[in-house]
Every structure is written in structure tokens, then in C-alpha cells.
Write a structure and sequence with these properties.
Length: 149
């Protein structure tokens, strides 16, 4: 549904593109979340575990930037992950004052299973687009993200 806003053509075009982008992202996320939740994870918890799995130990600030969450939100997420035995803080080898989160064996096992299932679901959901369309979507999203930064 296009915007009912009666502004300039540029304003209406930007609003319509934004509405479609957000609705599409929300719709896709609503179809991805059940698979993540089957593993007992929230979207933020999954993001932290996935980042640690693929990038290695990181401090809270690095993780917050990677998963686009606030420091306060990440503190709570990390506390819950630690409580469940999926991560543990370890001193940084460069600076002992800095604590980095690292996966425990239990956390590694969980994210390996959850990530495998997530990717299978993601491939299925993204199948609505051709490979070329997926690449174009990625290019446009990156361009928008870089421009906005």
C-alpha cells in the first residue's frame, strides 16, 4: 500500500520505498524467527552467538557494533547467554582489563545447530527472489547502509 502523504514526488518515492523495505524485512524476520526460537534463542542472542562463532571472542562494544544493538541491550543479552552456559568472559590477551566473550563448548554446539537450521530456512525464504535479484538486493542494501552511515 503506497503512502497517503501528499508531499513532493521525491518525498512520496522515498516514503514508499521505505515502507516496502521495512514491511519486507519485518515479514522476512517473522518467518525466520520461529527457527531461531526453536533453539531457545532470541534474535539478539542468536546474533551474539553467530558473531562469536564466525569471528571469535569479542568485547561487548565490538559485539554491539556487529549486531547493531545498544551496549545496555547487549549487557543483558550477554548476561543471559552466560547464565545459560553458552558464553563465558575471558581476559583479553592485549589488555587484561578488557573482558571478551567466548563460546563455551555448549554454546558452540548450540550455534552450529541453530545456524545450520537458520541458513536452510533463509535459503528457502529468499527463494522468492532469483539469485540475481538477491545479489541486487544485497548491493542496494549495502549502498543504502553506506550512504546512511
Amino acid at each position: 500500500m503506497p503512502t497517503k502523504f501528499k508531499g513532493t514526488r521525491a518525498e512520496a518515492t522515498a516514503l514508499n520505498a521505505f515502507i516496502k523495505l521495512m514491511r519486507g524485512a519485518d515479514s522476512l524476520n517473522s518467518r525466520l524467527m520461529p527457527v531461531i526460537e526453536q533453539h531457545g534463542l532470541t534474535f539478539s542472542q542468536f546474533g551474539v552467538l553467530e558473531a562469536l562463532y564466525h569471528l571469535g571472542p569479542m568485547c561487548h562494544t565490538e559485539l554491539a557494533q556487529k549486531i547493531l544493538r545498544s551496549g545496555g541491550n547487549l549487557t543483558l543479552v550477554a548476561k543471559n547467554l552466560e547464565r545459560n552456559g553458552w558464553v563465558r568472559p575471558v581476559p583479553s590477551p592485549e589488555d587484561r582489563r578488557v573482558r571478551r566473550l567466548t563460546l563455551t563448548p555448549k554454546g558452540r554446539s548450540l550455534i552450529e545447530r541453530a545456524f545450520r537450521d537458520h541458513v536452510a530456512n533463509l535459503v528457502q525464504q529468499m527463494g522468492a527472489l532469483t539469485s540475481a535479484e538477491q545479489e541486487e538486493l544485497g548491493r542496494l542494501a549495502k549502498k543504502l547502509g553506506i550512504q546512511s552511515a
